[in-house]
Amino acid sequence: MVDAPRFGIWAAVHGSRAAHHDPEEPDDASWDRNRALVLEAEALGFDSVLVAQHTMNPYDTSRDQLEAWTAAAALAALTRRIEIIAAIKPGLYHPVVLAKMALQAEHISGGRFALNLVNAWNRAEFKRAGLPFPAHDDRYAYGREWIGLVERLMRGERVTVSGAHFQVEDYQLRPAGTYRPRPKIYLGGESEPARALAVDHADVWFINGQPLDDVRGLIADVSGRPAANGPLSYGLSAFVIARETDAAAQAEHARLLALAQGDADLRADTRARTDAASVMFAKTDAAASRHVGTNGGTAAGLVGSYETVAARIRAFHEAGIGLFMLQFQPFEAEMRRFAEHVRPRVR
Q: Which of 120, 11, 28, 27 is nearest to 76 (CA)?
């Protein structure tokens, strides 16, 4: 059994998570909205916030997009307790530069910073900038060398490396180790290269929203492998729709599904720019007509009465999930509802 469950939120980095034409929620990805959202999440007792990294909006390039690392640094200064997790795509930053940024954010936050390593799926984000976008397994080979170097630099080691991708000579970063040996490392992705990379370098493996039995199978596979940094912890992405009754929650799910149909063209355009080898999108495509939200969304089944949702969270927790990274819509109102009605039933 893992420790008591922790609850986090996805920052609204590109606006709404379920449907972009919801009259109950403006499609707002502004810094002002995200600052207020995270400060309220902290006040409500949420434990973490994940700031996903995109340089341009992945669904519609005419829409706003929050920048992850500048926002994460600002949030680190504004907050006092909540963990700040910034996603990072290795192909966008040299490891020496990124390790220094991570250590600075760790220092600003007083030891509450983490990075979430993702090896990218939006081909256009790289190609339109003239950046290389290698094949799936090649990106993971690059990411393996990248995070190996970043991890050592974040620990304050003096590093000399001559690798396939990076040449670093006698580099050491300070300050380091002020609050703990290094910032925490999260890793997302369910392909075999992602699983192997998680056990070699991560502290927490993020799993996309999906049914309980599938999650049990994923945890069984990865937990059976020797992990370099000790036993891995596990996080789950999920979209929550909780109401007083199961029927009311299902009605709200149907409302969001209907609204999401208006985003069909956006989804098709996004899929056309996506790496075909992405495990996440293969699963999402198969379930798109039945679920809302990103990264699996409601496929995790957190839709129902307050007690139904709490019971399902308890079941995932018993299976090994320690951190639930949650999405809502409309975000602020449903986040408050979860804090008031669901979380007390879990604990």
A: 11
Average pLDDT over the chain, rounded to an integer: 93
Nearest to 93 by CA among 155, 26, 166: 166
Nearest to 159 by CA among 200, 100, 105: 100
Helices (H) and strands (E) in the chain, counts: 13, 12
Pick the more confident residue, 27 or 268. Answer: 27
Burial label for 97, CB within 10 Å (0-12, 13-18, 19+), is exposed
In sequence order, what are the beta bridge partners of 313?
A: none
How far, in Å, CA of 168 to CA of 157, rounded? Answer: 12
Phi and psi for 122 in degrees, rounded to 5?
A: -85, 95
The domain 6-346: what is its CATH number?
3.20.20.30
Domains of the chain, by residue range, sit at 6-346
* Angle of CA points 243, 245, 250, to nearest 5°: 75
CB 214 within 8 A of CB 220: no
Q: What tens digit of pLDDT does each residue of 88-137 get?
A: 999 999 999 999 999 999 999 999 999 999 988 888 899 999 999 999 99
- Two structure tokens written together for 136: 């799936």
Does residue 175 have a cis bond before it (omega within 30 degrees)? yes
Q: Which residues contact 175 (CB under 8 A, 6 or more apart)?
A: 103, 107
- In contact, 322 and 231? CB cutoff 8 Å: no
The fraction of the chain above a pLDDT of 70, given in percent, is 92
Contact yes or no for 186/117 (Cβ under 8 A):
yes
Half-sphere exposure of 60 (CA within 13 A, CB side): 16
pLDDT at position 273 over 80: no
How many angstroms from the chain centroid is the CA of residue 183?
16
